[in-house]
Structure formats: structure tokens, C-alpha cells
Hints:
Blueprint lengths: L1 H8 L3 E5 L3 E2 L2 E2 L7 E4 L5 E5 L7 E5 L3 E8 L2 E9 L6 H14 L4 E7 L14 H13 L2 E2 L9 E3 L2 E3 L2 E5 L2 H4 L2 E5 L11 E5 L18 H20 L4 H22 L1
Parallel strand pairs: 8-9
Antiparallel strand pairs: 1-5, 2-3, 4-5, 6-7, 7-8, 9-13, 10-13, 11-12, 14-15
Helix pairs in contact: 2-3, 5-6
GO molecular function, one term: catalytic activity
Protein name: Endonuclease/exonuclease/phosphatase domain-containing protein
Pfam family, one: Exo_endo_phos_2
Amino acid sequence: MLLKAAQQYLPDLLLVQEPHVKDRKIAGISKYLKSWLSKSGKAGLIALPTCSTPVVLSVKENTMDIKITKNSKAFTIISSYSSPYANFREILEELTDLTTNINGEVYLIGGDFNAHNQRWGYRDEGSRGKQLQEFIVEKHIFLLNSSDSPPTFEHNNRQGWPDLTMLSSHSLVKICEWDVLKEETYSDHKFVKICINSNISFLSFARFKTAQGGHCKFVNVLKSKVQALRNLIFNSSNEEEFNKTTRNIQLEIHKTCKQVY
């Protein structure tokens, strides 16, 4: 059913938890697909043909991560699993280690955390849910699940929300679609579709001949714009505003160059 859903939705990657494993490999998938497992075999990733040059960064007991490149941008994808009977600090320490080593690059965490918190749908809050919420706040990351999200787990008359997705970039959250699918999975867990509409625009500028001088005039013209640009920088308080401010600075420098050179 997993590969049938993949044929319908055409993902680049599949994040899996508690897959059927045989000989330390995810069973039931084509041998032509690249796949990886955590040391416990409970968290894994499957790369579809559209996923270009995935690179394994690390493999830990409960987590594993790979780096992919999309539209010339690097993303780290982390798959995680924590048994409801495990010491929850272990997976949090692994995630802390992984995200610290990423060095500021964008990352996505997807996993089955078996942690109760009202923020992502449960009626109660457990110790694990409280610790995970503290981790989210401390890391300044963004949870894609919401308090009114459909359950990702159903068994008989029981429902749960153990499967969570987190992103490190607010700008990506705004262009991300997160849905619990209704397709049959033959499992207690539902498929979750995560789609990042990463159509990234780039600025390109002409080159100017500066060898013939004109630098003093450039400084004098740009000087009149510096205070306004400084105000933009000081008033920027989030990633989106800083990106907009950076674009404005580039455009002002470009306009000044056109005036002078």
C-alpha cells in the first residue's frame, strides 16, 4: 500500500517508522530504491527516483538523517521513532545532536514519538509530550501538526496523534502542505503527506565596469540611502522580514551602480 500511495502522490522521499525489516533492510520495496534504517530498525527513509543524490549524514539508535538538494538548496531530512516504553530523553538527545551538527541549514523532522500533548491533538499531556514541546520551543522549530489535526493513528475505537512533523524554517512552513490521507494503509497508522512548494526565486544582476573609477560618487549616492536601509535592518524581526530587507539592500546597491558606472 505504501508504494501504491507513492505512485499516486509521486513523493521524493518516504519517511517510515516500524517498517517490516528483513536482513537489516526494509522489506517489500524494489531493490532499485535506496533505503536506510536507524540502528534499531524502527526509523527509516526510502528515496524515490526523483530524489537526487541523497547523502547519509548519520545513523543513530532511534533516528537517522540524510541530506538532499532541491532547487540548489540543501535540506536535511530526519526520520525518528520512540517506543512508548523507551526513555524519551534518548531520542531528544539524538535529535539535539543531529540538529546542532546541521550548522544552520534547513531541516525537517518526521517521526512516531508516542508523546501526548494537547498542542497536536491529544486531550491530555504526558511527560513525553511536555519534553517534546520544550524541545520544539528551545530549538525554535515549527510543528506542522495542529490541535485540530485528524488522528494519525486508529485502532478499534482508539485514536492517537503520535506522528509529528517539524520544520526549522518559517518561510518553508508557509509554503508547506501537511495532510493526513484517507487511503487504506493496512496499518494502525495513517499516511501523512508533506508537500513543500519550493519554487525559489533568485535575483541576478548585471556586472558593472568599476576599473575606471567613480567609487567616490558611488559612496556619496549610496550614503543618502544608508539610514533608511539601517532602519529596515533594525525593524526586521523574523526570517521573512530579513529576506525582504536583504533583497531591498541588493536592489538599492544595484540602482546606485546603474547611476554611477
